[in-house]
Write a structure and sequence with these properties.
Layout lengths: L5 H4 L18 E6 L14 H9 L5 E2 L4 E2 L5 E6 L7 H17 L3 E6 L5 H9 L6 E5 L19 H6 L9 E6 L4 H10 L1 E4 L3 H7 L7 E7 L21 H13 L3 E8 L10 H17 L6
Parallel strand pairs: 1-4, 1-5, 5-10, 6-7, 6-9, 7-8, 9-10
Antiparallel strand pairs: 2-3
Helix pairs in contact: 2-9, 3-4, 8-9
The structure holds manganese (II) ion.
Length: 299
Amino acid sequence: MRPEWWSEFLEGPGSFMSFDSDWDSATEVFFGVPMDFTASFRPGSRMGPQRLREVSYGIEEYSMPLDRDLRDIKVHDLGDIIIPFGNVPRSLQQIEKVAKAVVDEGKRSWAIGGEHLVSLPLIKAVRQRHDDLIVLHFDAHADLRYDYLGERLSHATVMRRVSEMFHDGKKHIYQFGIRSGTKEEREYAKEHTHCFFGEVFEPLKQVAHEFKGKPVYISIDIDVVDPAFAPGTGTPEPGGITSKELFQAIHYLKDEEINLVGFDLVEILPHQDASERTTILGAKIIREALLAFSPKKGA
Ligand SMILES: [Mn+2]
C-alpha cells in the first residue's frame, strides 16, 4: 500500500491511466498479454501493454463525448501475464487461467495484446459461463484459416478456433471491417459467421438488435483501422476505417446498452509506431470502451 499522500505528489509508472482500485473493489480488471510468437509477418506486439501504459499518461481521464470520467469507475491493473515464450499451448493455458480467475470473481477482463491468438483463451474463459455468447470481431483480417503453415494455433486462425467452440449451429461471431483473407476463409465465413467486408459502422447499426440482451465479447485488432491512422501493427492492411469510425461504433454500442462481458485489444506494435499514433489510439480506445460499458462507482 502507498502512503495516503502518494497520489497528491506522484503518479506511475505502473498502471494504465494510474488505475488505483484494489482487486477486491474493482469491477473491471485490466491486464497485459505480451505474447507475439505466432505473428506471421512483423513481430513485436509483446511490447504493446507496457507502451500503452506509458502513453496513457498523455490522454484525459475524462471523455467529452461520453461525459464520463475514469475516476468514476473501478479498474484494477493486474500487470502482465508471464508468458513462457515459444510454447504456444502452455502460454494459452496461462492466459486462460488468469482470465478465468477474473471472470470467476464476477469481474470483467480487459486484456491488451499481444498478438490476436491471445483472444482464444480469453474468449474461452468467458464462454464457459455464457452459452449464448456473441463475439464482435473488429479486424482487417478474417482470421478464419483452418491452419497456418500447418499450425492450428496461430494469430491467423484465431476466429476459426473461436467459432469451433460453439456447437449449436448458430452464428455467434460478427466480423466487421474484414478486407483480407483467402477464398476458403470467405467460404467458411458464409457458413459460420456474420462477416461484413470493409465496413464497420453501417453494418453494426443493421445487426445490433440481434445481440441485444445477450452477453457480448468485443475483440479489436487495431489493424481494422487504416494504416494511415494505425501504422504500428504487425500486418497492416490498406483500405481500412478511420479512427473516428471506430469510436462511433463504440459509442453506438453504448447507446444500444449491450451487455459487455469481456474485451480485448490486440496487435499494436510500438517499435513500428514512430509517431506513437497507433499506441495513443489504442489507449484512447480502451478509455472510451471502459467508460462506455462500465458501471459507475456505487452503482
Ligand atoms: Mn488483423
